[in-house]
Amino acid sequence: MNEEPSEHHGSCYCGAISVTVKGPPRASAICHCHSCRKWHAAPINAWSIWKSADVTISGPMITSSENEASGRVSCAKCGGCVANHKPKVNMTVVYPMTLAGSGFAFEPASHIFYSERVMDFADDLPKFADMPERMGGSGERVEEPAKTGWRA
Q1: What is the pLDDT of residues 35-82, one digit of tens each?
Q2: Closest by alpha carbon to 30, among 152, 116, 134?
Q3: Which SS3 state, helix, strand or coil, does residue 10 take?
């Protein structure tokens, strides 16, 4: 029997920040919102979220104070993005690539903020215009595209 470890350890790009998560994430998804695309300089953002008490981050970090809903954490040395504190719900997002090599299996359940996308994904995952209702969104779904690729 092969059990997933109860802890996963990771780091930023240069290794100056260490991250530990305990237990499985509460949710995992792919975000298409403008803020995540700008923060990561990428067309999408893969994320998993844990209770803040189950996440430990140490090392030289910078925390963004762009808004009170998110405190985006990056390394003060290399600039690598590692996490996003969500103080209003006492949760912390950790980016799956931060945990790469730790045995963490990223299994997204859906796409969120799909109405803001710059790429289409034909992957049979639910696509929400904003977020599922259980996460405070409208729950409005967007139709699955015919193929994956950049939007015209």
Answers
A1: 999 999 999 999 999 999 999 999 999 998 778 888 999 999 999 999
A2: 116
A3: strand
* Residue whose entry in the numeric block shows the structure tokens 């193929």: 147
**132: CB partners within 8 A, 6+ apart:** 110, 112, 126, 139
What is the token pair recorded at 39? Answer: 């923060």
CB 96 within 8 A of CB 103: no
pTM of the model: 0.89
- Rounded Cα distance between 77 and 55, Å, is 21
Structure token pair of residue 48: 């998993």
Residue keyed to tokens 């799956």: 96
The DSSP secondary structure of 19-84, one letter per residue, reads EEEES--SEEEEE--HHHHHHHTSS-EEEEEEEGGGEEEESSEEE--SBTTBEEEEETTT--EEEE
* Calpha distance 36→88 (Å, rounded): 18
